[in-house]
Amino acid sequence: MSSPPRLTPTQMQVLRCVHSGLLNKQIAYELGMAEATVKVHMTAVMRKLNVRNRTQAAIAAGQFGWLHS
Known about the structure:
Blueprint: H1 9-19, H2 24-31, H3 35-49, H4 54-63
């Protein structure tokens, strides 16, 4: 796998929530933002990771070691 793309801190927060199994509405509540904003961040994450869905994004994040804190 090549070097990891750069994600913003908010994109990382959203990605961690996705990995935890939260839905967009739940993520929006947790992070204090609109559901549409969560979708924008998740779309950007998937584009940067070159994946098609949330599951693939979570898998890629694990491969990059982003989910271990």
